[in-house]
Amino acid sequence: MALFKKIAKALAKTRDAFKRRINEIFKRSELNGEFYDKLEEILISSDVGVQTSGLIIDEFKQEIIRKKIKKSDDAKQLFKDILTKSISLNENFEIKYPAVITIIGVNGVGKTTSIGKLAHYFKGLKKEVSLVAGDTFRAAASAQLAEWANRNKVKIIKHTEGADAAAVVYDGIISAKSKKTDVLIIDTAGRLHTKVNLMQELGKIDRIVNREYADANKYNFIVLDATIGQNALAQIQNFNEYVKIDGVILTKLDGTAKGGVILAIIRQFNLPVVFVGVGEKIGDLELFESVDFINNLF
User: Fold this and answer.
1) How far does Cα 271 stand from its chain's mean position?
2) What is the pTM of this model?
3) Which of 176, 155, 157, 150 lies closest to 282 in space, CA to CA?
């Protein structure tokens, strides 16, 4: 299935809820205070969030006045352009090689599955990929990752359960450097902000990657579940206290009617959404294209 078809299918719930209300308000309402309140309510109900919605509406109002727009069709196009501009940060993001990608996030968001899909994605680009089983905290985590390594026919570096995660990462880096691996993907234990020791371990892993592989392009990607909406923003904030997050992998986009959280992530945290989960198959993790996203919403 072509990429835009996958994105369109994944966004079906979000689009159906958003498009119907947007069309209705732009057709039936005058450009007055009540109109702007209703428009902001639509954004908030789509999980764009109060803060981001307010910024978007303020910018929209100013542009309406500046451009002296009166017609609803012109106003609707302007609104679409502002939303596109809000997430244009994504257009400049690029993964360079050799890449070390550390995957972080809480349990249950689909971290290990996302790693498996990432390996498949990079293999499709003819890149050499290795996985590091850095989640030594959760029982059977290494075995689960090993299944994905076997499925993708890529190398995995792992130790026994309960081993020092930083030591596994160190071995993975040494292996990647010696074999000139294009992409090294590091799994980490699922964290909550209450698990201070595990969060501190993340910082240790980050320091080892920076110290031992200075020549690599390093990325910390947080995996977020699109269905939890605004709680995803709290997770970004918590993890940002321990490591610098470089991008987001948003899973289960096809399972929510509130995909507007993408706007909040990019605008509020100045973070690109790099990949989105658009289904359950191994090939259903796609590079996020902001223009496609907005076009599909409308």
Assistant:
1) 9
2) 0.91
3) 150
